[in-house]
Amino acid sequence: LLLGCELTASTKSYTFQVDKEDDSDHILALSVVCLTDGAKDECNVVEVVGRNHENQEIAVPVANLKLSCQPLLSLDNFKLQPPVTFRLAAGSGPVHLTGWHKIMHREDASFEEDDDLSEEDEEELPPIMPAKK
């Protein structure tokens, strides 16, 4: 699924989240951050706001865009786990963010069964014979 949002002086943040009852794994990958029509020649700092392993909010700048020197930044599918907020920490934008959202459905207990099967397969393999000279 494609993702797109725009940060401006009036809309400084966008939060991407999934339903708490959804037990699928979600990956959000940020591809490109760029200035769009109407941007001034000023520094536009975009932050990603998330939570660390202690559930504390952390904000990390991922882009500093300026029309005259760096209007676009490729983030090479920078992967994040929702919920995540994109925030325009400095500047007035507009800054457009694009990326994709991938959903991986979990299968009940299939991981354990697969492991058991692979161990059995390994035991049934014949021993490796030395090469004939």
UniProtKB/TrEMBL annotation:
Keyword set, alphabetical order: Acetylation, Chaperone, Methylation, Nucleus, Phosphoprotein
High-level lineage: Eukaryota, Metazoa, Chordata, Craniata, Vertebrata
Bias (Acidic residues) ranges: 110-125
GO cellular component: cytoplasm; nucleolus; nucleoplasm
Superkingdom to which the source organism belongs: Eukaryota
InterPro entries: Nucleoplasmin, Nucleoplasmin_core_dom, Nucleoplasmin_core_dom_sf
Gene that encodes it: Npm3
Name used for this protein in its record: Nucleoplasmin-3
Location of the Nucleoplasmin core domain: 3-101
A Pfam family hit: Nucleoplasmin
One GO MF term attached to the UniProt entry: chromatin binding
SUPFAM superfamilies: Nucleoplasmin-like core domain (SSF69203)
Function, as annotated: Plays a role in the regulation of diverse cellular processes such as ribosome biogenesis, chromatin remodeling or protein chaperoning. Modulates the histone chaperone function and the RNA-binding activity of nucleolar phosphoprotein B23/NPM. Efficiently mediates chromatin remodeling when included in a pentamer containing NPM3 and NPM.
Subunit structure: Interacts with NPM (via N-terminus). Forms a pentamer with NPM at a ratio 4:1 (NPM3/NPM). Two pentamers form a decamer.
Subcellular location: Nucleus, Nucleolus
Family: Belongs to the nucleoplasmin family.
GO biological process, one term: chromatin remodeling
Organism: Poecile atricapillus (Black-capped chickadee)
Chain residue ranges for the region called Disordered: 108-133
